[in-house]
Design a protein that fits this description.
- There is one protein chain.
- With about 270 residues, the protein is an alpha+beta fold.
- It has one domain (about 35-270).
- Helix content is about 20%, strand content about 40%.
- Strand 9 (about 160) and strand 10 form a beta hairpin.
Length: about 270
């Protein structure tokens, strides 16, 4: 009788142990809810320290009034540097269209045009990227990409006649009322491209430690700010659209090079 009691006791104990293990398995973290490390890169248009709004007039330090109607640009070879000094590639290229992300209806809650980066887990201290498309991407055939792809011909950034992409496209108006020309706005179109204008920029930031995160967790954010004022009004040069209204790079390369130089110095990193 005692032997039967011991056997029953052992069976009950084993059942309870298996039940606990099963319950523990049910509450264990689901690997599918664990995501790769994330860093949000937000490209934010600014007018000085104020938010940039598409289709709204803003004033330069010399009282020139400018309105931007369209603004698109490529960044490529986006890399993050870890604290060991190694550069990690995180995105080959990205087309940013501020014409869609910086419209009046969105500006009140504008957090820029966002790009999610997924580097390996680690601690990072700097970012670098190319303004435009590096030669290995600039020479690709746009017709092989689907319509919605960043390099598709349907993005309106490919030059059929120039066998390459526009790196930076900005079109708008200058108000000439202060010059006595009856206040007629003068349109301008600045389209920059070609391999010779491709440049790489690098910015340091406070160290950010990235690790795998749970689904629904907000990742850290870097704001990459583009100050539109500095494109027109730099420390050594001023671009005057009413007097210099057009460059498609070829045909007015000196103006394209000047604008590209101003653009180089119009970026800054903001870290919350």
């Amino acid at each position: 009788m005692l032997k039967l009691f011991r056997i029953a006791f052992l069976l009950i104990s084993m059942f309870m142990l298996l039940s606990c293990q099963r319950d523990r398995a049910l509450v264990s973290p689901d690997p599918q809810n664990i995501q790769l490390p994330e860093l949000e890169l937000a490209l934010v248009g600014k007018v000085g320290m104020e938010d940039f709004v598409m289709m709204q007039w803003f004033t330069l330090p010399d009282s020139t009034r400018i309105r931007i109607n369209e603004l698109k640009l490529y960044l490529s070879d986006i890399e993050l540097q870890n604290t060991s000094g190694n550069w990690i590639s995180v995105k080959p290229y990205k087309l940013f269209d501020l014409s869609k992300s910086h419209v009046p209806s969105k500006v009140q809650h504008n957090k820029g045009e966002r790009l999610t980066l997924n580097p390996p887990a680690g601690t990072y201290q700097a970012i670098r990227f190319g303004m435009g498309l590096s030669p290995k991407y600039n020479g690709l055939d746009p017709t092989v990409f689907p319509n919605s792809h960043d390099l598709s011909v349907y993005q309106g950034m490919y030059w059929d006649w120039n066998s390459g992409y526009r790196f930076f496209l900005m079109e708008g108006m200058q108000d000439t009322s202060r010059t006595g020309n009856l206040g007629e706005p003068v349109p301008f179109a600045y389209h920059l491209g070609t391999d010779s204008l491709f440049e790489t920029l690098e910015f340091e930031f406070n160290e950010i430690q990235l690790s795998a995160i749970r689904e629904g967790t907000l990742p850290p954010t870097l704001d990459l700010e583009l100050d539109l004022v500095k494109i027109f009004y730099g420390s050594t040069d001023t671009i005057r659209p009413a007097l210099e209204p057009v460059t498609h790079t070829a045909g007015n390369y000196p103006l394209a090079k000047r604008i590209n130089h101003q653009l180089h110095h119009a970026w800054r990193i903001f870290q919350e």
